[in-house]
Fold this sequence. Notes:
Helix content is 72%, strand content 0%. The protein is mainly alpha-helical. The protein starts with 14 loop residues before the first helix and ends with a helix.
Amino acid sequence: xxxxxxxxxxxxxxxxxxxxxxxxxxxxxxxxxxxxxxxxxxxxxxxxxxxxxxxxxxxxxxxxxxxxxxxxxxxxxxxxxxxxxxxxxxxxxxxxxxxxxxxxxxxxxxxxxxxxxxxxxxxxxxxxxxxxxxxxxxxxxxxxxxxxxxxxxxxxxxxxxxxxxxxxxxxxxxxxxxxxxxxxxxxxxxxxxxxxxxxxxxxxxxxxxx
Length: 210
């Protein structure tokens, strides 16, 4: 906002009149600047409060999604381990029973809406550095997780093309076992990243004051 300085109401006839006018103008300017600073401080405070609330909500929701994913992946891990054991036994000419497998598997994409909003509103300009560092670390790890989850999904669909494990044999058995092993490796890597990401979320949440 611009400041408008009014001319003196009466002609200045002495140094005393000049001094009074300068003092009046100076006080008016200081009051106006002070009010502007208070308004800006309030706006920044509101911006930070909204950004923190968004981060808390998104981190908490994403963390809950990871916990659900963690439970589901335990069953998938057991299935893949059973398939690897079954395929290995068949390659060695041993009798083996294929494990029961679930036909579908859920994959998650963790959103970053709070980060995008804070960037658009420039809220990071007013957040403490230590707080911003922890928030940035969480979202950086989240990007890695989303990319790994997308690759794991591709591997799962490739694995689905193998068909019924009980019907796989001959020259198709070894390539099928390789696909199962790759899918298993992706799952283990994902579980490690999920654990690290949940720790990042916890650190970011702890860094933000209530």
